[in-house]
Design goal:
The chain has eleven helices and 19 strands. The protein has helices spanning about 1-30, 40-50, 50-60, 65-90, 95-110, 120-145, 170-195, 200-205, 275, 310-315, 340-345, and strands at about 260-265, 270, 280-290, 300-310, 325-330, 335-340, 350-355, 360, 370, 385-390, 415-420, 425, 430-440, 445-450, 460, 460, 470-480, 485-495, 515-520. The chain has a five-stranded mixed β-sheet. Strands 3, 4, 7, 8 and 9 form a five-stranded antiparallel β-sheet that branches. It binds the ligand Nc1nc2c(c(=O)[nH]1)N[C@H]1C(S)=C(S)[C@@H](COP(=O)(O)O)O[C@H]1N2 and molybdenum atom (MO). It comes from Nocardioides iriomotensis.
Length: about 525
């Protein structure tokens, strides 16, 4: 009877500890940007691993509820493992530890292989670590109360205290601890719900990127010079800079999402995501740049985007005479003003993008749809979590950053950056690669020059050109003499403009000046 009581209490302890562990780790994942919920990540891996007939059967049987059923299955499996861990753990605490180590390992593997996640490995693994600590910690605590006798331990005839469990544990102590763990589980669950962006993440995980109607031309050979330490030609989604005013990434599920096009148009349009997918989808490589990028800064990245050309949508709506701007608005009420003629220009190929580097837009980069407009700084061209396009006049509105002292119009300034060597690097005497990137969307880079210690400008070798809306790598082979040196770079675009040495701040329309690094040779 007492043994059974202990087993039941142990099982309950396991269940509570498991619930607390999962709930708190879900909350931690929800609180971190770019980290997928552990339950969702494990469920997604299960989907990947399942043979196709099983998947088809699941979809046919459960329909749109298949995700919920799947996650229910994951929760049920965790519950069974936790109950067994608790029941067995009453006598063998190591089993309790083993069970949570196992769960944490599965969560870690799922987190590290998750495609929707954009955070680094440390952040991704954190929920699994929390799962282990909370699960094992609370179970050990609960099982400990079961070991605490209500009466003094029975002495064996030999006079040694029995290592067997006491005939009865102190119920009140156990129940109090159990209640505390249950409260932790509920709090974790509520926090996960409050913080989680799971609706958008779930929709994104279900999405396959459509084949573009017009694929990007193949990447020319030689766009990437492969110099050590040089920024890769294409920026991965994970490494892509992120700039926005959102404290938490807006959760914009596909269900109910629409893009409204209105204002000075003949025909108002309200498009669903599916409507976008059914239009002409064009793929293009475009380098984005933030106006906040300081000389030598990191707020610039190059990706392949798939989207509906903005000019197609504007044509469909029928732009009326007198309009000169499009005011775009995001789900989080950020506003942007973009010149109409840029959005209508086929050479620019501005997009309402739905994919980035072959994946649905990451949540941080505007899921489900965003603007990408070559040649203009992001704050006047790249609205993420896009929901509204109003054809209008610059005279009739002010966008978010315009009311805060930035220019209403802001073409990207021709710029260049030295990636290698890093500032204050110590180099060996002799041949050293000085390399970096230069950009001048939509003019294109014509020339990059480097000078050492204020000497004569030397022309750098340019990587192969992709298109005028993307950055270009460059390298200068430098014969380094011992001593301290200053390296400077400047670019010339295809309009013939050479970067000015004059340093201006980022406000109101972008920084200027030459990037330089100081190094020591010898
Ligand atoms: N909704 C929304 N969209 C936005 C912003 C923002 O704050 N909110 N910032 C803009 C700015 S300033 C830039 S530089 C780009 C950056 O895009 P990224 O974060 O994908 O690199 O997004 C633009 N789109
Ligand atoms: Mo920006």
């Amino acid at each position: 009877m007492t043994t059974r009581g202990n087993l039941l209490a142990g099982g309950l302890a396991g269940l509570l500890a498991g619930a607390a562990a999962v709930a708190v780790s879900e909350a931690v994942a929800a609180a971190l940007d770019g980290v997928t919920s552990p339950l969702l990540a494990v469920a997604n891996r299960a989907v990947d691993a399942a043979p196709r007939p099983v998947k088809e059967w699941a979809v046919a049987t459960f329909g749109t509820a298949d995700k919920a059923v799947l996650i229910g299955g994951v929760i049920g499996t965790v519950a069974v493992i936790a109950v067994v861990a608790g029941a067995v753990g009453v006598r063998r605490p190591r089993v309790a530890l083993g069970a949570f180590v196992l769960l944490a390992l599965v969560a870690t593997a799922a987190a590290l292989t998750d495609r929707a996640a954009t955070a680094g490995p440390a952040a991704r693994v954190l929920p699994a670590v929390v799962l282990l600590l909370v699960g094992f910690g609370s179970l050990t605590w609960l099982l400990g109360t079961l070991r605490r006798p209500a009466r003094p331990p029975v002495m064996l005839p030999t006079g040694v205290p029995g290592d067997d469990l006491p005939a009865a544990f102190d119920r009140r102590v156990f129940l109090r601890a159990a209640a505390a763990v249950a409260v932790a589980a509920s709090a974790g669950g509520l926090a996960a719900r409050a913080l989680g962006g799971s609706a958008a993440a779930a929709a994104r995980a279900d999405l396959t990127v459509p084949r573009p109607t017009v694929p990007a031309p193949p990447l020319p050979t030689g766009v990437d010079l492969g110099v050590d330490g040089l920024t890769p030609y294409l920026t991965s989604n994970r490494d892509f800079y992120r700039v926005d005013t959102a404290l938490r990434v807006p959760d914009v599920p596909l269900d109910g999402w629409t893009l409204r096009i209105h204002g000075m148009v003949d025909k108002e349009l309200t498009l669903t995501f599916q409507d976008l997918l059914e239009r002409r989808l064009v793929e293009d490589r475009i380098t984005l740049t933030c106006v906040s990028n300081e000389v030598g800064g990191e707020y610039v990245g190059n990706a392949a985007w798939i989207g509906v050309p903005m000019r197609d949508l504007l044509e469909e709506a029928g732009v009326q005479a007198g309009a000169d701007a499009v005011k775009s608005t995001s789900a989080d009420d950020f506003t942007v003003g973009t010149p109409l003629e840029v959005l209508q220009d086929p050479q620019r190929n501005a997009l309402v993008a739905i994919a980035m580097n072959g994946e649905p837009l990451p949540l941080e980069h505007g899921f489900p749809a965003r603007m990408v407009t070559p040649g203009l700084y992001g704050y006047v061209s790249a609205t993420k979590w896009l929901v509204d396009l109003e054809v209008t006049r610059f005279a009739d509105f002010q966008a978010y950053w315009t009311t805060r002292g930035y220019s209403a119009q802001a073409p990207i300034k021709t710029s260049s950056r030295i990636d290698v060597p890093r500032s204050f690097a110590r180099l060996k005497k002799g041949r050293n690669a000085v390399a970096g990137v230069a950009w001048s969307q939509d003019r294109g880079i014509a020339k990059v020059e480097v000078r050492v210690d204020g000497g004569a400008w030397q022309e750098a070798d340019l990587a192969a050109a992709d298109n005028v809306n993307t950055w270009r790598q460059w390298v200068y082979r430098w014969d380094a003499e011992p001593g301290s040196h200053k390296l400077e770079v400047r670019a010339t675009d295809r309009s013939g403009y050479t970067q000015t040495s004059e340093r201006t701040p980022i406000a109101p329309d972008g920084s200027t000046g030459w990037h330089s690094v100081d190094v020591v040779v010898g």
